[in-house]
Write a structure and sequence with these properties.
The protein is mainly α. Helices cover about 45% and strands about 5% of the residues. The structure holds zinc ion.
Length: about 80
């Protein structure tokens, strides 16, 4: 929902101007357009998310370690009931 900082008010998307401006003070800052939710903030979040995925790769030896740990733990559980 479009929020106008100077007016401290929410406005219906249909009430906004074509360029996303406030119907009362005509400010455009921090307002999503009436035609969608894609804003500069959303794009930045997507870039950050993609960056995080690149920073945390899943190497094959990590998967091997997890697999070995699961085998070990399941063996320990089996041993409990022997
Ligand atoms: Zn306003």
């Amino acid at each position: 929902m479009p929020w106008c900082e100077p007016c401290s008010k929410y406005f219906a998307p249909s009430a906004m101007g074509d360029d996303g401006s406030c119907p009362q003070c005509f400010a455009i800052a921090d307002m999503p357009s009436a035609h969608g939710s894609i804003t500069a903030k959303n794009l930045d979040l997507k870039k950050l998310a993609a960056h995080d995925e690149q920073d945390i790769p899943l190497p094959w030896h990590f998967k091997l370690l997890v697999g070995a740990l699961l085998l070990y733990l399941s063996w320990r559980v089996i041993e409990l009931f022997r």
